């Protein structure tokens, strides 16, 4: 009577075994952040690795073949995410393109946009960035000021975006722009595809707390795009932007719960494979939190496969994961920083890995809508709390 | 906020809710009879043993529905007893299903079975209604055994223990070389996991009810010229409590389907922590009103605290086992459920 069964279907088990074997053979030990052989792969190396993954058929699993996908289901998508998540593999340098932009193009893009852009996103030929946030439009994204003015058979874009990840390396940007009266707020926003080589674009990398320069400030001065740049309808970009954010929270980087598990295992191994006292307490909590993240992802996949929208479940998962993972990163670093007589190469590797995880985790409660924004969504849409309002 | 419950369960839950309504003021034995007459107590017992053959998520839904509607409920133990006693000692199953015998279930005590397997000695954790029950079903040992004890047997002593709970008396039971009515190892591990998972579901249901009371209050209470529920900080805190309950619910659903020891322990440990926090915070949000005897919040707090404090569950499952359980979930069910 429950819609959960107790055995993995044979085809899924076979697929899982294929993925696992392929990864064991093809993912170099130097790319694994929990391996003593690790040597921080360059962006080009990661890009080549992701292309290899695509050629093996393990990218865009649930996307139709006509658009460069594998034409399989979310179940296979989940399995690949689980198996990759369980390994300390490098983060994608095009997850924005492969998971966020592709979803929005699939939902709102024209047939020619889908055929032109999607295959090259998945094959890593073209990297994308997402230009939503602006200096004055953070949590309040509908305050976007970057403007596109109709000009002949196209549009002229002026303004600036900020915190745009990978802008300096991206081939295209999905831009949220104002195409009407600011007062119309939600009803005057449009999504546009902008080639990053178009004259008038200036991307300036901003150094992040981990020393890298992944995000940028991007300036647009009379940047010309054609009518075919518009995704969906003019002035109807807000609902598209909202669904981008929903995807970002629900299905993007679905491996997070399993990567969390990989990190817990790494700490356990660094502690010699056994845990007692406060180490046991911290690891049990972290393992449970990882499990909860996994269960949310599985619930989301079940919902999608039943033909329903995951709605605000992504907000539950995002809020849980980001806060729990930050706590775990803090705990892990404390454990690894305890004084020991002899620092083994394994311990040194673990420290380096978790220093980076700790720093990067600071962004997890911000990206894809901050914790406060997620909590508001949960209050309104999951718990359906009465609004209250003024007297 | 839906779980893995089936839709046709709603009829059974409606029956449970009306039974709970009917026995609001009734003493335990009478209320068990009302549930028994409605056929609820055999819900998770196999059809071959005269039960309804419903699955464990359904059992948890029944326990939750009864738990939040009825302060003196003991439906969880009754469901377990009918299911497992039916296998171990069918002679008693009819009495249990009809509510004329009351069996409490212990999975966290300290009871040893003699080498010849004929007697039991030790004590069980304080259990609701153990002071008035007729039988005890217990799971004990590293290689778990299931044993049924007639509480009128020689060597059994019991007394009421102090607990915060006002409606469910708690009893301690001591066994001194007591001959059990029946012993067996079949399904002992399953019984243990199911018992703590049903308790987890009961805690979750109580916590949801307490939160609901707080939300209803905040939706009408005005301060600073506006409804408190409209204040961002209040909404944020409520959302975090809602998130914790959802997290706990996910672990419960997972444990109910897989019923492995680590999954059940994890679900219980999380629900125990979350339930207490949610009820405490819900009480806080009623202001001084929540501190009054008339408001039911303290009753939820008392019953939740009493069960949590009495249940001897290893809050920290061996981490190695826990991670191994995750790995087995990938190939044996869990995520793979997505068909
Ligand atoms: C590493 C990283 C990568 C990013 N990549 C991209 C990208 O590729 N593309 C892109 O468009 N954006 C990107 N962002 C931006 C991200 O989406 C924003 O940081 C986020 O939306 C928050 O906006 P803000 O930083 O302006 O904070 P603000 O909105 O100014 O918020 C500041 C603080 O106030 C809180 N706050 C705000 N409003 C409320 C409220 N109503 N109630 C309670 N608290 C509130 C917030 O939660 C936060 O803690 C990235 C950010 C980071 C850190």
Class by alpha and beta content of chain A: alpha+beta
Overall mean pLDDT score of chain A? 93
Order of helices and strands of chain B: HHHHHEEEEEEEEHEEHHHH
- Structural class determined from secondary elements of chain B: alpha+beta
The CATH homologous superfamily of the largest domain in chain B is called: Butyryl-CoA Dehydrogenase, subunit A, domain 3
Q: What pair of chains forms the biggest interface?
A: A-B, 60 and 58 residues
* End-to-end distance of chain B: 22 Å
For the biggest sheet of chain A, the summary is: 4 strands, mixed
Overall pLDDT of chain B, averaged? 89
Give start-end ranges of low-pLDDT stretches of chain A.
1-5
Shape designation of chain B:
globular
Q: What is the number of strand segments of chain B? A: 10
Give the oligomeric state of the chains in this entry, treating copies of one chain as homo and distinct chains as hetero.
heterodimer
Helices of chain A, by number, come to 11
Biggest sheet of chain B, strands in spatial order?
1-4-5-8
Bound small-molecule species: flavin-adenine dinucleotide
The strand line-up of the biggest sheet of chain A is 1-4-5-8
Total number of strands of chain A = 8
């Amino acid at each position: 009577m429950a819609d959960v069964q107790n055995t993995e279907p044979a085809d899924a088990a076979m697929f899982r075994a294929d993925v696992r074997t392929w990864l064991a053979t093809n993912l170099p030990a130097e790319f694994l952040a929990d391996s003593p052989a690790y040597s921080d792969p360059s962006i080009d190396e990661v890009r080549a690795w992701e292309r290899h993954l695509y050629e093996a058929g393990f990218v865009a699993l649930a996307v139709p073949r006509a658009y460069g996908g594998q034409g399989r289901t979310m179940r296979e998508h989940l399995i690949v995410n689980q198996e990759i998540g369980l390994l300390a593999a490098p983060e994608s340098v095009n997850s924005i393109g492969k998971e966020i932009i592709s979803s929005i193009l699939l939902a709102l893009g024209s047939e020619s946009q889908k055929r032109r852009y999607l295959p090259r996103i998945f094959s890593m030929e073209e990297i994308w960035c997402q230009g939503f946030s602006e200096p004055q439009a953070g949590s309040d994204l509908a305050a976007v000021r970057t403007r596109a003015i109709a000009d002949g058979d196209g549009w002229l874009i002026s303004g600036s975006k900020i915190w745009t990840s990978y802008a300096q390396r991206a081939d295209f940007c999905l831009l949220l722009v104002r195409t009407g009266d600011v007062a119309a707020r939600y009803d005057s926003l449009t999504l546009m595809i902008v080639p990053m080589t178009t004259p008038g674009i200036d991307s300036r990398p901003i150094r992040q707390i981990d020393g890298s320069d992944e995000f940028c400030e991007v300036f647009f001065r009379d940047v010309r795009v054609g009518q075919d740049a518009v995704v969906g309808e003019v002035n109807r970009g807000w609902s598209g932007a909202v669904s981008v954010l929903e995807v970002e929270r629900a299905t993007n980087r679905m491996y997070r719960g399993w990567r969390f598990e990989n990190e817990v295992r790494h700490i356990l191994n660094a502690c010699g494979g056994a845990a007692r006292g406060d180490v046991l307490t911290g690891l049990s909590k972290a393992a449970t939190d990882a499990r909860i993240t996994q269960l949310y992802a599985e619930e989301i996949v079940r919902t999608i496969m039943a033909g329903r929208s995951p709605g605000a479940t992504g907000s539950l998962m995002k809020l849980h994961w980001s806060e729990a993972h930050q706590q775990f990163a803090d705990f892990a670093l404390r454990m690894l920083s305890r004084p020991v007589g002899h620092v083994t190469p394994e311990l040194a590797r673990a420290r380096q890995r978790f220093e980076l995880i700790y720093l990067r985790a600071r962004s997890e409660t911000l990206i894809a809508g901050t914790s406060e924004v997620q909590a508001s969504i949960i209050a309104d849409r999951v718990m359906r709390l009465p609004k209250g309002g003024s007297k | 906020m839906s779980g893995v419950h089936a839709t046709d369960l709603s009829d059974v839950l409606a029956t449970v809710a009306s039974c709970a309504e009917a026995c609001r003021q009734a003493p335990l034995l009478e209320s068990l009879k009302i549930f028994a007459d409605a056929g609820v107590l055999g819900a998770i017992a196999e059809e071959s043993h005269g039960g309804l053959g419903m699955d464990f998520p359904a059992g948890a839904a029944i326990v939750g529905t009864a738990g939040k509607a009825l302060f003196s409920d003991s439906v969880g133990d009754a469901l377990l007893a009918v299911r497992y006693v039916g296998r171990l000692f069918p002679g008693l199953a009819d009495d249990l299903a009809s509510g004329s015998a009351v069996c409490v279930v212990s999975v966290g005590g300290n009871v040893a079975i003699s080498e010849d397997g004929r007697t039991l000695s030790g004590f069980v954790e304080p259990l609701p209604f153990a002071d008035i029950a007729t039988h005890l079903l217990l799971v004990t040992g590293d290689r778990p055994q299931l044993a049924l004890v007639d509480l009128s047997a020689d060597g059994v002593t019991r007394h009421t223990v102090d607990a915060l709970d006002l409606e469910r008396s708690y009893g301690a039971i001591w066994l001194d070389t007591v001959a059990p009515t029946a012993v067996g190892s079949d399904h002992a591990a399953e019984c243990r996991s199911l018992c703590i998972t049903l308790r987890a579901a009961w805690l979750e249901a109580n916590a949801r009810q307490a939160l609901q009371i707080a939300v209803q209050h905040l939706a009408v209470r005005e301060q600073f010229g506006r409804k408190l529920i409209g204040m961002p900080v209040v909404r944020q805190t409520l959302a975090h409590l809602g998130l914790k309950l959802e997290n706990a619910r996910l672990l419960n659903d997972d444990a109910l389907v897989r019923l492995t020891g680590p999954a059940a322990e994890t679900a219980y440990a999380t629900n125990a922590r979350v339930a207490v926090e949610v009820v405490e915070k819900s009480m806080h949000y009623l202001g001084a009103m929540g501190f009054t005897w008339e408001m039911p919040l303290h009753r939820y707090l008392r019953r939740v605290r009493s069960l949590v404090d009495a249940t001897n569950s290893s809050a920290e499952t061996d981490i190695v086992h826990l991670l191994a359980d995750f790995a087995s979930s990938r190939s044996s069910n869990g995520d793979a459920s997505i068909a």
